[in-house]
Amino acid sequence: MFLRGGRKTGSAGPKPGVASRITGVAEGLFQGCCRDGSRIKIAAHLIPAVTRFSIMRIERNSRRAGASSRARGLCHWAALLLLIPAAYPAVAQEEAAGSIEEVVVTGSRIPRADIEGAAPVAIYTETDIDRTGATSIGQLLREIPSVAGGAQTTQVNNGGGGTMQISLRGMGAVRTLVLLNGRRVVSSVSDGAGTSVDLNTFPTSIISRIEVLKDGASAVYGSDAVAGVVNIITKSNFQGFELSTYLGDTTRGGGSRQQYDLVAGGIGDGNNWLFVASTTDEEEIEVNDRKWAQIPLFMAAGDIIFLGSSAPPWGRYRRFTEAAGDRDCDGDGIIGLPPDAGEDDDEPSCDLTLGPEYGDFREFSYFGGDSYNYAPANYQRQPNHRWSLSFFGETALDVLSDAGVLGNVSGFVEATYTNRESRAKLAEVPLAPFAFFGFDAPYSEDNYYNPLGTDIPDWRRRMVEGGSRTNPTEENTARLLLGMRGEMDSGWSWDAYMTRGESSREAHFGHIYNLERVANAVGPTTGSPATGDLQCVTDPANCVPLNTFGENSVTQEMLDYITFTTNESFRMEQQIWSLQLSTPALFDVPAGSVGLALGLEYRDEFASDSPDSQIATLGDAATGTPRQPTSGGYDATEAYLELVVPLLADRPLVQSLEFEAALRHSDYSAFGTTTNPKLGLRWRVANDLVVRGSFSTAFRAPNVAELFGGAGSSFPSLTDPCAGGRTGGNVCMDPRVPDQGFEIISTQIRTRVGGNADLVPEEADIFTVGLVWTPEAFLGGMSVALDYYEYEMTDAIGGLGADFILTACAERGELCDRIDRFPDGNVRQLDNRTANASGLDASGVDLAVRYTGIETRFGEFDARLDLTRVLTHDLIQNDGTVIEHAGWFRDEQDGHFGEWKFILGLGYHFNENLNLSWDIRFIDDVMEEFDDQFTSEIFERTLKGAIYHDLQANWNFQVSDLPSTLTVGVDNARDEDPSFSLDGFNDNTDVRTFDTAGRYVYARWRIGL
Q1: By three-state DSSP, how is residue 570 classified?
Q2: Is the pLDDT of residue 617 over 90?
Q3: What was the pLDDT predicted at 17?
Q4: 3-state secondary structure of 769
Q5: Is the dihedral of CA 156, 162, 168, 172 positive or negative?
Q6: Which distant-in-sequence residues (6+ apart) come within 8 Å of 301 by Cβ?
Q7: CB–CB of 185/201 below 8 Å?
Q8: Distance (Å, whole) CA 477 – CA 576
Q9: C-alpha closest to that of 758 among 713, 700, 805, 702
Q10: Alpha helices (H) along 233-355
Q11: Are 960 and 218 in contact (CB under 8 A)?
């Protein structure tokens, strides 16, 4: 429930109805009642051995009841839990003999001996990481089955910032919180301002393990922990020195990797430290190195054919006038091309080209081979170079410890610095001022180079003389954390720290065109080259007339006048102050000890985006993606409380039963306050079986980019359904569109994007239930974890969607004010700036199976299975329209949602020196939806999934009495091509899901000193 200015904006208050007061231990955290509009039937079957309970039915007036539904959901859980302790008398618990180490596991701040809590946590150890050929955490995590959707990877060239992110549950990278040792880290700025953490920031050599919480955790960690949490735990007990060398390459060319690491550490009397230096080079992959990406393929007239750019090097020139908004190029009253237009027709054609043969002018044929193959001029994968320095240390502070007030006190520090350089490469600029950028720059009939004798409003030319567009980027990320912690004899522990993180980025974009100068250069001229006095009528002192008619007709002097290079900078700053207290034994109850954690946190976030001053001044008169400079920030003050309450112990079929509760109250300067609770239940039936479940609310505050991002442009590929007009079977409801429709001049439409200071946070209700089975009695070494998840999110932040805006306008006449059209009906630009645009419902099942220690006379074997089954993933748009994503690939931004995804791993170990592994990665088939480029009809087809085989051998041996490990492996051993997609904007495939490198062979040598 959110409050603004101290006033509640949710439900108005208690209504008459049946009240269920929450009492007992939970009373200090949650008070509420079940109100009208929600009916719950709870059947509690009290059997002498065990209490069984089930929710028989829950009915709500509205599926999206907002904050009130959350209150009812909490009430239901609380009422349910209060039935359980009433079933049994209090029983004293015997004190366990011996000492058991207590640890903190992601999803809770309370130390406990049993790591299986009420929420599902997957743990990936250093051994698991070594079992892959990954050189970054992102490469490792993007393959786990619970990751889906369209998160950024280094395989994205056009629109990629060189970062590596993951999207748990396919809910977006911004809804996956990334922690380092349980604490926040600063976001990357590679998307223009702070969005989500770049997993390339952390070298793999610092890692002890990675814990992935697949549950909402806003009550514990605050904003962003909606889909889950990735917690990177660093090594803390390393002693000595270690050198590591990694070399890898693809068998198809391009994509080689090199990584070198130095790890040093020490452990002393109350002290420990770790230093890591790492450098990684990842070579680019050119599109020409991969046959499946060399030609852009689309559906046209029912066939899959090559279709390139309508702005070719040989030019495209469309002659027409715009009297009364018509395109009557030949005065016969017919809009667009005459029915019988062609070389033998006496009427002039509306659409001319010199053709790839650079001959005489003839009619342009987009489907007949006159388009331009832009693909070979692109990278398929960006080059990426990074280096990092990391230091982690802790030392006993005896002076404070001896004071006897704060317990045994130690100070700790975490310092990390990463430098990353990457570079995108795109095809040469398609210069089409009117068609692509909505800018009026007609080729004047009075321009010396214009041979057609008439103004040409719509002219297009691929500027191959300027070469490919490049975007070198350098990002620096630094973080310093200073803290103290103490453990007191009473069992209490405390932790206080301050951290400051900064990300800065410098980017340079070449081949940006000044469209105002382009208009000058194609405008009227005087004089001629023969007499040496050729000059532009406008800006004659500087302007160089532009000649696009012919092969290599554009000179460097012409380019120098109309192009420039931008220099842009971005910055993200984060500062956090935190204080936490915790104890695993606040007081005893008959079933055990009550655990408690509480704390305060202050966080300040600031970001700035400083585009090149020239592009900011030009705005829409510049190509690329112009935007305005911006800066802004917010602060948040938060308090949290967490409890673990044992309810039962040592009963038949109830070895232990624990109730978990957490509550976090947050006050944001940007939008107000929010309070988010979480309730969980953990039931250990016996030594080998745990049943768990949780209900929570989560939130995500809009980040700085979403709040304050400057207005800019993007150019998505779109099809306007209004092109067919307003008559016959067409139902376009936009009155500005001519009845007969229009010919689409470009499928890439300028779309306005940018921040919105009026955003409110996203909210989510999350429910999980599952079990963990470890049948030691008859299958020692096996563990099975099965979990069901369900998310219901409202007020999701993002654009309404350019497709949605066009469709809503065409079908219902809604949102037409967001579309700016030319007089003929074509879209000049549309407004898709950030808003609280939609909702999201998702559900599915996770299965994790481990079987270790299978001993035979030939050695020891192990097996593992990680599987996710996506049941639903529905986007609910503002008008209530539901778009199903489960089993679909809609586009690259939304991403791939195969219903089944799993990793099956088999391992073999001999004499602790030789280790072999074979991992099978499975990605399910999905359906994809796409437009026929000729008829605009919508088709569906099956996008094939993939099965990848990864093999590895690992040998431990001694070199001059020094421990050494040699690892060799091959990923994608069968050299599978990525699946062909007609929705793959860049490379005929989904680069965010499939392996595009092909077979990849690597070796790593590690030696201890």
Answers
A1: strand
A2: no
A3: 33
A4: strand
A5: negative
A6: 367, 932, 934, 935
A7: yes
A8: 16
A9: 702
A10: none
A11: no
In a 3-state reduction of DSSP, which class is residue 817? helix
With 0-12 / 13-18 / 19 or more C-beta atoms within 10 angstroms meaning exposed / middle / buried, residue 579 is middle
Q: Which residues contact 881 (CB under 8 A, 6 or more apart)?
A: none
Under DSSP, is residue 683 helix (H, G, I), strand (E, B) or coil?
strand
Cα 766 from Cα 227, distance rounded (Å): 9
* Short-list 340, 367, 392, CA closest to 499: 392
Local structure of 408: helix, strand or coil? strand
* Rounded Cα–Cα distance for residues 551 and 344 (Å): 26
* Residue matched to tokens 């791939």: 896
Q: Which amino acid is at 107?
A: G
Q: Average pLDDT of 278-289?
A: 95
Tell me the residue ranges of DSSP E strands in 251-332: 257-267, 271-282, 285-286, 297-300, 303-306, 316-318
DSSP state of 139: H
Please state the rounded mean pLDDT for residues 496-524.
Answer: 95
Torsional class of 292: left (φ above 0), alpha (ψ -120 to 50), beta (otherwise): alpha
Calculate the CA dihedral of residues 58, 60, 64, 67 and round it to 10 degrees. Answer: -90
What SS3 state is found at 2?
strand
34, pLDDT greater than 60: no
User: In whole angstroms, how far apart are CA 425 and each of 336, 441, 467, 625, 897?
Assistant: 36, 27, 10, 15, 28
* Integer Cα distance of 705 and 834 in angstroms: 10
State how far the Cα of 747 lies from the Cα of 740, in Å rounded to an integer.
Answer: 19
Helix, strand or coil for residue 807?
A: helix
pTM for the whole thing?
0.84
Share of the chain above pLDDT 70, in %: 85
DSSP-derived secondary structure letter, 253: S
Reading the block at residue 254, the tokens are 């391009």
Q: What is the DSSP letter of 6?
A: T
Burial-class residue 652 by CB neighbours within 10 Å (0-12, 13-18, 19+): exposed
For 732-891, strand residue ranges (E) read 751-753, 762-773, 782-798, 819-821, 827-831, 835-856, 859-877, 882-884, 888-889
Alpha carbons 103 and 111: distance in angstroms, whole number: 5
- Cα–Cα nearest to 320, from 308, 309, 307, 333: 333
Helix (H), strand (E) at residue 992: none
Kind plus residue range of the DSSP H or E element containing 349? none
Burial of 155 from C-beta contacts in 10 A (0-12 / 13-18 / 19+): buried
Residue 945, token pair as written in the block? 């999934």
**Could you tell me the two tokens for 650?**
């040592």
Q: What is the distance between the alpha carbons of residues 627 and 740, in angstroms, rounded to a whole number?
A: 36
Residues 6+ apart with CB under 8 A from 288: 294, 376
Q: What is the pLDDT of residue 113?
A: 66
Give the model's pLDDT for residue 28.
Answer: 32
- Compute, in degrees rounded to 10, the torsion defined by CA atoms 979, 980, 983, 987: 90
Residues, the chain: 1009
Q: Model confidence over 542-589: pLDDT tens digits?
A: 999 999 999 999 999 999 999 999 998 999 999 999 999 999 999 999
**Closest by Cα among 877, 681, 688, 715 to 796:** 877
DSSP 589-610: ETTEEEEEEEEEEEEEEEEEEE
The continuous run of DSSP H or E covering 953 comes out as: strand 946-959
Q: Is the pLDDT of residue 281 over 80?
A: yes
Single-letter amino acid, residue 618: L
The pair of structure tokens assigned to 731 is: 């139902």
Instruction: Break the chain into its structural domains and give their ranges.
Output: 4-14+16-87
d(CA 970, CA 769): 37
Q: Both tokens of residue 940? A: 């569906």
